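Consider the tokenized backbone below.
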């Protein structure tokens, strides 16, 4: 809030430049946070962009200044907390009234992504809350050089989300916002189970996946044990087809050796079985020398 030592005066637009036309700014608020309110009317969907300061709401549409970073409302100045938010406000200024026919698309393309970074409230008839979900877990597999990457994923009502700190999930169902409370206890238990599979399975800082070096993944049949565990737990694995260095058959092979012989020769056949798939069959044939003593 501004003090009295350095007063600011404003010359209203269209007024003559003279002392009588000036008015004094009563308050200056720095680093204000932006909030959004969406309400449904008979004529359209109304998008309200505002600030909440000292329990008072200020609508940016009433600003006397023609920019999206500094606002003059009711003889008070407001400066955005983050300069990069100005472009977001500018892109939504022409959407403060939205036709019902366009609402579903704008909700999906603009408002739901907005809700991940800003406080967005929805009026009656536009929102539904769900808080009893048990998500379906999966793991997205990828690789970075010599590291095998496992990224936990969770499916909430056919909406996949990554493992992160978001507490709620916003989805669009026929123009209605469905806010799903994430089951963080379930997600944490699943992630702990995954990390417990190997002591060298580490989470890189600022990442939402686990990584293990190939020298550890291939030791003591861990790679095959991992796939067996996921099959046992009925965990879907995504991205396997895109692997290159780690695209190893998921099943541990079994090997059988068949030997047949006659008077002066023998055949050795090696059969490698990947749970019903037999891609490799090696035959070694050796004719004995006539003077070989058996």
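A designed sequence for it:
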């Amino acid at each position: 809030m501004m003090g009295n030592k350095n007063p600011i005066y404003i010359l209203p637009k269209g007024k003559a430049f003279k002392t009588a036309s000036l008015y004094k700014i009563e308050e200056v608020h720095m680093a204000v946070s932006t909030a959004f309110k969406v309400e449904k009317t008979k004529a359209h969907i109304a998008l309200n962009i505002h600030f909440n300061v000292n329990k008072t709401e200020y609508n940016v549409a009433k600003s006397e200044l023609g920019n999206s970073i500094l606002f003059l409302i009711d003889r008070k100045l407001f400066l955005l907390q983050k300069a990069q938010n100005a472009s977001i406000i500018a892109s939504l200024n022409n959407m403060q009234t939205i036709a019902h026919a366009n609402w579903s698309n704008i909700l999906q393309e603009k408002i739901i992504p907005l809700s991940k970074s800003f406080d967005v409230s929805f009026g009656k008839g536009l929102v539904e809350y769900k808080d009893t979900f048990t998500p379906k877990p999966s793991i997205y597999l990828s690789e970075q050089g010599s590291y095998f990457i496992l990224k936990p994923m969770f499916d909430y009502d056919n909406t996949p989300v990554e493992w992160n700190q978001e507490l709620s999930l916003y989805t669009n169902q026929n123009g209605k916002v469905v806010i799903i409370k994430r089951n963080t206890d379930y997600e944490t238990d699943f992630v702990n189970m995954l990390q417990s599979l190997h002591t060298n399975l580490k989470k890189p800082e600022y990442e939402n996946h686990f990584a293990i070096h190939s020298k550890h993944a291939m030791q003591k049949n861990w790679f095959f044990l991992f796939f067996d565990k996921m099959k046992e737990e009925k965990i879907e694995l995504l991205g396997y087809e895109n692997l290159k260095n780690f695209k190893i058959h998921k099943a541990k092979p079994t090997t059988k050796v068949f030997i047949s012989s006659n008077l002066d020769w023998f055949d050795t056949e090696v059969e490698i079985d990947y749970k019903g798939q037999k891609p490799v069959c090696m035959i070694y044939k050796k004719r004995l020398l006539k003077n070989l003593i058996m």
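Residues 288-294 have pLDDT under 50 and may be disordered.
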